[in-house]
Amino acid sequence: MEVIRARVLGYCMGVRRAVEMTARVSGGGAPAPVPDLRLASREGPCAGKIYTLGPLIHNPQVLAKLKSRGVEVLDETRLPGDLRGAVVIVRAHGVSPVLEAEVSLRGGRVVDATCPKVKASQNLARSLGRAGYRLFLGGEKQHGEIIGIRAYAGDCIVVASPEEAAEAAADLYRETAGKRPAVIKTALLGQTTLSPGEYRAIGEAIRPFFPDLRVEDTICEATRDRQEALMELCGQVDALIVAGGRASANTRRLLSMAQALGKPAWLVESAGDIPREIAACSVVGLSAGASTPDDVIDEIEGALLAMDR
Ligand code: SF4
Fold first, then answer.
1. Which of 72, 208, 234, 280 makes a 20 to 30 Å CA pair with 161?
2. Is 37 found in the same domain as 19?
3. Can you give the C-alpha Rg of the chain in angstroms?
4. 104 CA to centre of ligand 1 in angstroms
């Protein structure tokens, strides 16, 4: 069997940064340079309890490793009353500013591992909201990134699909018709992991109601790069393995893209999940979501190659 890796796969910058920041705080060392050197002094190993606000990333192996180092996951809806002496790490998806303030009020030290790109979306949402824009936010309502950005925006309308966008835009149009100012300012921001096509379709669904809609480019190229690499790979292989956590939205999206292109494809969390029938394929493609660590990808590739022997 030949295994071809996607040109781009695995950890994106934001996830790698969050994992490395957490490793430093929990005394696990950092294999790569710190992207933001100003943070280094605040990230030294912590003697007290270490928490992440929700799961740091959607990957079971990484979460298990962090747990073994004593890093606990806090339920964002039920913070402990006393966090004195504890470090609380904000994950790459970011959280609402209210939650961060709550942690500080209870005595916790916040280490902000929010991806700089998500931070940029949060800041944009806040400044557009302050400038009087009605915001549409494209993405999954329950996703941590959307919950966080929404809190920065104040009032905004979350839409998960072009159909929902058209419906919400029609409602807003009816609600504002005849009111002053006659033309309301609208803007669209998207979850960083949306596909460019989906995001465009959401914008097109709103535009008939609000032709001056301001569309911000918030889609992260890390997602785009992995999706484009996967599409290229699909043309060269008989079947495809997407390595990553089942809870990872961008990993599941890679899987559904491969399936939509007509390729037999499986989402595999670890080597033990590889389906037996793939042994019949001559050329297998290997892709991985943005929260999949290098060692898991290597292990899965090794197991695929070992199926030949
Ligand atoms: S996918 Fe992009 S926005 Fe999301 S964490 Fe990774 S680098 Fe940041």
1. 234
2. yes
3. 21
4. 25
